[in-house]
Structures are given as C-alpha cells and as structure tokens.
Amino acid sequence: QVQLVESGGGLVQAGGSLRLSCAASGSDFGIRAMDWYRQAPGKQRELVAAITTGGRTTYADSVKGRFTISSDNAKNTGYLQMNSLKPEDTAVYYCKFNILVRIGAYDTWGQGTQVTVSS
Most buried residue, 56, 73, 79, 88, by CB count within 10 Å? Predict the structure, then answer.
C-alpha cells in the first residue's frame, strides 16, 4: 500500500508564502494524478489544485494566480507553492494521489497539514 507523507504547513502572516510537499512511498506503483484539497473548520473539503502526469493543471478560482501545483515524478513528490496567502486560506491541507498498480488504480490521502494565515 502506497503511503503519503505531507510537510510544510505552519503559521504565516497574510501576504506570506508556504510550500507544501507530499511524498509517496511504496513499491511497484505509478502516479496518475496529484491533487491538493483543503478543509476549513465547519466547511466541506474542497479541491484547491490538481496536476496530471502530463503536467496539465487546474486550480480553484479562489487560488488562481497565487498557488502553483507541481510535481517531481522521479521523487514521487507533489508540491503546492502558496503565495500571497490570505486569512481565508486557513485550513487543513490534504494531498490525494491517484495510484496505479498492476491490478488497477486507487486514491490515497495524506495525513493533512495545518496552514494558518494570520491577519
């Protein structure tokens, strides 16, 4: 079973930046897509950004122009660069990878990392 480990969250002032990482570990797998979600208190989890192995990216309207998703396929790692952070970006951020194995594909999630933006 592939496991994801997230890092990079923390407390930052409005206007600041953070870079989240999500590293996959396991054996005999490929990654078809990497997504970042976030969940603020009392709100539903929402998709923030996504990237395919071909490099195609999509972003939520609320983060376009501020966040950048990227991946290092050789390291099985995904990144979310977050710039110009706003208090409304405060949430727990989760990565989700679509994992390809010999018998099929499945989604797996990271443990989540807290991002807090102070005003």
Answer: 79
Tokens 């050789």 correspond to 74
Instruction: Give buried/exposed letters for 45-64 (b at 16+ CB in 10 A, else e).
Output: eeebbbbeeeeeeebeeebe
Q: What is 29-63 written as a DSSP string? A: -EEEEEEEEEE-TTS--EEEEEEETT--EEE-TTT
Instruction: Find the radius of gyration of the CA atoms of the chain.
Output: 14
pLDDT in tens, 61-74: 999 999 999 999 99
Pick from 70, 4, 6, 80: which is nearest to 36 by CA?
A: 80
29, 99 contact by CB (below 8 A): yes
